[in-house]
Amino acid sequence: MKKYIIAITGASGSIYAVKLIEELLKNGYSIHLVVSDNGAKVLEYETGIKLLNFIEDMKEKYGNITLEDVDNLFSSVASGSFKTDGMIILPCSMSSLGEIAHGVSKNLIGRAADVCIKEKRPLVIVPRETPLSSIHLKNMLILSESGVTILPAMPGFYHKPENLEDVINFVVGKILDTLSIENNLFKKWGN
Length: 191
Ligand SMILES: Cc1cc2nc3c(=O)[nH]c(=O)nc-3n(C[C@H](O)[C@H](O)[C@H](O)COP(=O)(O)O)c2cc1C
Known about the structure:
- The protein is α/β, with parallel strands linked by helices.
- About 40% of the residues lie in helices and about 15% in strands.
- The chain has one domain (about 5-180): Rossmann fold, CATH 3.40.50.1950.
- It is built from 7 helices and 6 strands; from the N terminus they run E-H-E-H-H-E-E-H-H-E-H-E-H.
- It has a 6-stranded parallel beta sheet with strand order 3-2-1-4-5-6, sandwiched between helices.
- The radius of gyration is 16 Å and the shape is globular.
- Flavin mononucleotide (FMN) binds near residues 96 and 129.
């Protein structure tokens, strides 16, 4: 069974992660979820979803999701010897992105990302900030040059979204495409 680490940080847009998690679980993937303190707060503020209730709901419907303690560096996902198929940080704050770009792994998000980079496993970072400073852009370049996929939460409009769900599905579909995971979340150009 394929296994992904998903991290939610305190940037705006955790609704994307809610959709990605459900989509992966529905398709039989297993997930280790790490959420920063502000990630949980922003999730509740923006969506009204309480993290623990969401996890319970997902466990009941699909199973195969483990909530990791963001401060537990003894977690399995902190070690390269624990094999995963990669990691998605969604949404990624400029703070977490900066830490990862500079090899800082004070919490489990930074450490698990560092492991993916050193083990050359897929790492998809979905930054959310605007406008972007030179510091943000340089940090993204460092990560891109280290093999990380920088996939900004930048919905397109050429698929003619009719509602918010279509906009969310576009970004989540792009993440799944990057990981070569079949999906029909948005109409592909030319189809
Ligand atoms: C409602 C809200 C929205 C935020 N949105 C963003 C954002 O889109 N991008 C960003 O980089 N930081 C954003 N922040 C700031 C981060 O949450 C803050 O920098 C935090 O320290 C990030 O830490 P973390 O990466 O450990 O979650 C937001 C904060 C709040 C309260």
